[in-house]
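Handout, section 4.2: multi-component inputs.
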Amino acid sequence: MADAEHAPGATEYILHHQSFLSNKAPHGIVDFTVINYDTVFFSVLLALVFFVTFWMVARKATAGVPGKFQNLIEMIIEFIDNQVRDSFHGTSKLIAPLALTIFCWIFLFNFMDVVPVDLLPAVARGAGFEHLKVVPSTDLNATFALSLTVFILIIFYSVKMKGLVGFIGELTLQPFSSKNFFAQAALVPVNFLLESVTFLARPVSLSLRLYGNLYAGEMIFLLLAALTLHGISGLASVGGWFALIGQLGLGLLWAGFHLFVITLQAFIFMVLTVVYLAMAHEHH
Amino acid sequence: MNINLTLIVQMLVFGMLVFGTMKFIWPHILAAMDERSRKIAQGLAAAEKGEESLTEARSKAEDIVREARERATQIIDHAQHRANELVEEAKGTATTEGGRLVAAAQQQIQLDTTRARERLRREVAGIAVGAASKLLSREIDARTHADLLEQLATQI
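Output:
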């Protein structure tokens, strides 16, 4: 009965948390006059965190005995380097740093999800901002920005390594091929349909996988937070105490599990990027 | 949820970040790591070489000690031999010298005996002559009867 009473409150609470800090309300699905300040702010901030941290180590990197911090950074670098070497056999100055950037940046994006959901929005409200979304990877713009950049790189490397003709051939001459010219000509549209779906699915699946996981994770934190939405007054009832303990216990449990999920999602994004770029480099 | 300008901004930020990582982070750290693994490899090789030369030096030292021991044994043997020789030589010299001394002493004794006997004989002869001349008065001349006296002296 308490739930029924507070149900509108919970909906409002969640919807409030789902809104971006933007310059104006968007019209329609695509509106390039709108910009989400919170996403840009936090992703630039996290980019700086990543860059400054690694840059400080890189600046003072010594071949002698490394310090604890340099050791940690080197462990990450070595881990990425091994992953890249496992999937990508060509030589490229770009792919390994790209993989490092993707892994660390997405990890930091996702890590914002473990920060208590109400903490930063409350601070923002104190500073006069009504809405604030702190997790950039729960913004489709951020995840699509990553996957579209990767997609552009895939096209660039495919054309660079195989030539425009080779690239178009790859899209149209397989999986079905025939020695007969006319049969082949008939198969081209079929092949193109199949291959273009496969090809376009890459950036879409990359960004939606990351977005979906983080969106769901944030939603669970919001639902747990909504358990004690009515604040101190809820402690007057047994149900209120139950909700408080439930929020603490489940919140801790979910945060622990989510730490695993956010690392895994960053890792998956990185590995798939490397694999796609490796495929773009390979000749069939 | 909609797609907006954020997408473009994020792509630009991403591009710059990747460029920065590629330019200022990755090569430096990787170079340091490669340099370190090269150093470690060198260090290991040097350690192995050092161990090898240590083994070599140890066996060389063993050789030297063995040689020295052999030489020492040789010297001791030689010294013992020489000592024995010296003792033998000394013994020989001592025996010879002793013999010589004994011989000289015997000779001296013999000489002394002969002399004593000679003197005794002369004295006896003189006494005999004196006694005889006393007995025969002055008839017997000592000089003329020297032959006889000599004969007598020999008989004593």
